[in-house]
Amino acid sequence: MTNFTFPEGFLWGGAIAANQAEGAYLEGGKGLTTVDLLPTGKKRWDIAMGKLESFTPIEGEFYPSHEAIDFYHRYKEDIALFAEMGFKALRVSISWARIFPNGNDDKPNEEGLQFYEDLFDELLKNGIQPVVTMAHFDVPVHLVETYGSWRNRKLVQFFESYAQTIFTRYKDKVKYWMTFNEINMLLHLPFVGAGLVFKEGEDKNQIKYQAAHHQLVASALAVKACHEIIPDAKIGCMLAAGATYPYTSNPDDYYHAMDKDRESFFFIDVQSRGEYPGYAKRFFKDNDLKIEMEDGDLELLKDNTVDYIGFSYYASRTASTDPEVLKHMTSGNVFGSIENPYLEKSEWGWTIDPKGFRITANQLYDRYQKPLFVVENGLGAVDEVTPEGEIHDDYRIDYLKKHLAEMGEAIQDGVEILGYTSWGPIDLVSASTGEMKKRYGYIYVDKDNEGNGTLERKKKKSFFWYKNVIATNGAEL
């Protein structure tokens, strides 16, 4: 039991992404996207970092996104399970290349448009609100090959056309939108975040921040179009969040931790406050970065800020300036971090920090004073199926229970939170490693890292726990 209740109408649910769940990677007229070029194994990381040019799947490599968990063909079965849990919302993404196979086609692909219409209808029929991300780590490959992806200003107009198309088509079905998933990931996994591939000798910072400017302008144009086409909709941004702690009380550590947070806040400062912050301008000056802008860009950013802040929270981070301490970095997470001696870690080396969730939510709300939406949070773990066919994932229940309690505390602190869609309510392909064994779901999918398995769905113990959480609106965790 908890000593508080969550707000009436709180949007409990789960979150998936097209590229990690749908599969059917060339069905229904879909074009290749960047994630379709990420194999498992050693090459994955180099491609994700933009170090290796790869515009077609390499023979002999296994690409988990090509089939994923086959949500494309099984979504009705999966939505029925989400409805059984009582979901109020499901966060999904639209694959840009299902709507415009090349990203810049003259006409949208009707089969792709119809697929998402059917998906949204199925959700609504089951009383589940679609929460839709417009770009979740999948740039059409044609745009990467032909234009260099987001380093090129032309992508702004292509994205605006895509935005107007989907807003017009789904205006009566979707009331919650987000522009770019974990937009700050552009700095850490440039190919995943923005389809960027670097050539020898290029100034990576210059290219990344120029691409960031293009995404920020595209995001503002999408906000503008959404407000014009669907006046009663809400459109937000999305941050890979997690407070950074100084390792010691040394002021140098504190400043370094603040700097690390600002790397991520930079994007949301522009999307939520509508202007480039002073620390970013100084960073550009100190690093001799010249961001090319067109007339009207700054006004566009100022006039078209987001309605809410979507964010993912998995772990906090710890920063130090001491070379000796820096030898003890954690593995697993894309964000480098010092090991925090006060916290446990997951099987993949991610810090487990429920209190950090409350801290992060307060930090974001203090900074932006806009509603927050927790659109990813969960535990990736290896799940074992017993001989009786059961999955006892008490460790997942424990992780989520502690995080939900801290989210409840944040709400009592005065933080406005619209809803909570935990990551991967059904097992899906891991974005970072491409593995299936790194499972997040309440629903088990019979598939292994090599792509073998029946794809059969099974309810885990956490399925029934989360069903009760929703039924009691968080009163019973």
Features:
14 strands, globular, two-stranded parallel ribbon, TIM Barrel, 15 helices, beta-glucosidase activity, 477 residues, alpha/beta, eight-stranded parallel barrel
In short:
The chain is an alpha/beta fold and 477 residues long.
Task: Provide an overview of this structure.
This protein starts with 10 loop residues before the first strand and ends in a 6-residue tail after the last helix. The protein has 477 residues and is of the alpha/beta class. It is 39% helix and 13% strand. The protein is built from 15 helices and 14 strands. The radius of gyration is 21 Å and the shape is globular. The chain has an 8-stranded parallel β-barrel with strand order 1-2-3-4-5-7-11-12, surrounded by 4 helices. Strands 6-8 form a two-stranded parallel sheet. Strand 11 (372-376), helix 14 and strand 12 (417-423) form a beta-alpha-beta unit. The protein has helices at 18-21, 42-48, 71-85, 96-99, 110-125, 141-147, 154-170, 190-194, 204-229, 251-273, 278-286, 297-303, 354-368, 394-412, 461-471; strands spanning 11-15, 89-93, 129-135, 176-180, 234-241, 244-246, 308-313, 317-319, 344-345, 351-352, 372-376, 417-423, 443-445, 457-459. One of its GO terms (molecular function) is beta-glucosidase activity. This is 6-phospho-beta-glucosidase. Keywords: Glycosidase, Hydrolase. It comes from Mesobacillus foraminis.
